[in-house]
Write a structure and sequence with these properties.
Blueprint: E1 2-5, H1 11-17, H2 26-43, H3 45-56, H4 67-76, H5 79-98, E2 104-109, E3 112-120, E4 123-127, H6 136-149, E5 153-158, H7 168-176, E6 181-184, H8 187-196, E7 206-208, H9 213-224, E8 230-231, E9 239-244, H10 250-261, E10 268-273, H11 276-290, H12 296-303, E11 307-310, H13 314-324, E12 328-332, H14 336-339, E13 348-351, H15 357-362, E14 388-396, H16 398-415, H17 418-432
Parallel strand pairs: 1-11, 4-5, 4-7, 5-6, 7-8, 9-10, 9-12, 10-11, 12-13
Antiparallel strand pairs: 2-3, 3-14
Helix pairs in contact: 2-3, 2-8, 2-9, 4-7, 5-6, 5-7, 6-7, 8-9, 10-11, 10-12, 16-17
Length: 433
């Protein structure tokens, strides 16, 4: 990791230090994705087969997973893995159920009842990455809240393996959550297929799920195109920012950094500390732990675009973190909870030495589909409300119209909207007669 001293950097250098690697290839990525989206939109399944041949080494006979493949997938898993998926699903459900929004109604005036009701989004598409590593945990993170929301039509796309099958753990996790419409399609083409529909994959109203820079760009593009789908949030390459003090354990910190670096070469990890010795110790631990990782080459590539930054205080570290707005924020501090009020922008926060980010990825109960690329400044992680729409309702009695109608007439008059004014004034006259 490149070592930097925040105090020694000018504004331009600070901006560069917090730049995400994906931003450096955005123009070429956007052009490639636009071509894929247009081809799928125009040619449907034929385009999906073309890109499967190009990117996956071959196209499956059928994109849809059938019952026999689901059964075979379940049978192929060890009892321990099935139990872990079941356990994680239950814990995720408990957490998300507790945080569900509730409808409400209130009389804003005598005779005026205003309500907010909740309805599930009817057709949702879930994307579960499996390119460099299968992610059954993502199937849980998306399918559990979708099920709690009551979505009636749920499609899930995941990249096929070299033999044309879907990852068994992903299939088990999907069916465990009631999702049986699973398609072996990956990348930007899967996003386009769910957004516009093909012969095999039905059109969805909203798309969910993380992915690499191409998947993220595809989500951005389909959300802007006529007839496209809405998206959950910008969930691109993984990132973590760790703030550690002199009392932090270097081996814990290094492990947390590597847990995100191993996701992909475009992942980014940042370490901020006011203690030079801690930064040095983490460097040593990174090398030692890299030697034991099966995905060491991937992690090393990510570390090339990562930073180890010396700051003059923990207060400064929080300022830098809020500026970066990380997907994951680990506060490896002696008094971590006391610093929580200073966190203004982060997808998910992990307090203290004993809360590794990996627990949030799998089974603590919170969601790991989180805003990346600085979107934590304005977006939240996926939850049940992400799969719902809120509809407001007004019910007005004649006495209610008499109470608030003059207010509407006055405002409509000020805005010069005569039809607005008259729609209320007509009723006022009728109610007063």
């Amino acid at each position: 990791m490149q070592r930097l001293d925040w105090n020694a950097l000018d504004e331009g250098a600070r901006e560069q230090a917090l730049r995400r690697p994906a931003q450096q290839t955005r123009a070429s990525t956007a052009a490639a994705v636009a071509e894929i989206v247009e081809a799928v939109r125009r040619d449907g399944d034929a385009a999906l087969r073309l890109y499967a041949e190009r990117f996956d080494g071959g196209a499956p006979e059928r994109f849809a997973v059938d019952a026999a493949e689901f059964d075979a997938a379940e049978a192929s898993l060890t009892p321990a893995l099935r139990a872990a998926i079941d356990e994680a699903a239950e814990r995720i459900a408990v957490f998300h159920d507790a945080g569900m929004s509730e409808p409400y109604a209130i009389d804003t005036a005598d005779g005026v009842r205003c309500e907010r009701i909740l309805r599930p989004i009817r057709r949702v598409g879930l994307y579960v990455p499996a390119g460099s590593a299968p992610l059954p945990s993502t199937a849980l993170m998306l399918a559990v809240p979708a099920d709690l929301a009551g979505c009636r039509e749920i499609a899930l796309c995941t990249p096929p393996r070299r033999d044309g099958s879907a990852d068994p753990a992903v299939l088990y996790a999907a069916r465990r959550c009631g999702v049986t419409r699973v398609f072996k399609v990956g990348g930007a083409q899967a996003i386009a297929a769910m957004a516009f529909g093909t012969e095999s994959i039905g059109k969805c109203d909203k798309l969910f799920g993380p992915g690499n820079a191409y998947v993220t760009e595809a989500k951005r593009q389909v959300a802007l195109l006529e007839g496209g789908a809405a998206i959950d949030l910008p969930a691109g390459p993984s990132e973590v920012l760790v703030i550690a003090d002199a009392g932090a354990r270097a081996d814990f910190v290094a492990a947390d950094l590597l847990s995100q670096a191993e996701h992909g070469p475009d992942s980014q990890v940042l370490l901020l500390s006011d203690d030079e010795a801690l930064l040095d110790a983490v460097d040593v631990e990174l090398e030692a732990q890299l030697a034991r990782l099966s995905r060491a080459d991937t992690a090393r590539a990510a570390l090339q675009c990562s930073r180890s930054i010396r700051v003059d205080s923990i207060e400064r570290a929080l300022e830098v973190s809020n500026r970066y707005a990380p997907e994951h924020l680990i506060l490896a501090l002696r008094d971590a909870r006391e610093w929580l009020p200073e966190v203004e922008a982060a997808g998910s926060v992990f307090l203290g030495d004993w809360a590794p980010e990996a627990l949030g990825d799998y089974c603590s109960g919170t969601n790991h589909v989180l805003p990346t690329s600085g979107a934590a400044r304005y977006a939240s992680g996926v939850n049940v409300a992400s799969f719902q729409v809120a509809i407001t309702v007004q019910e007005v009695q004649p006495r209610g119209l008499l109470a608030i109608g003059p207010c509407a007439v006055e405002l409509a008059t000020a805005e010069g909207l005569d039809a607005h004014r008259e729609a209320v004034a007509l009723r006022l006259r009728a109610a007063a007669a």
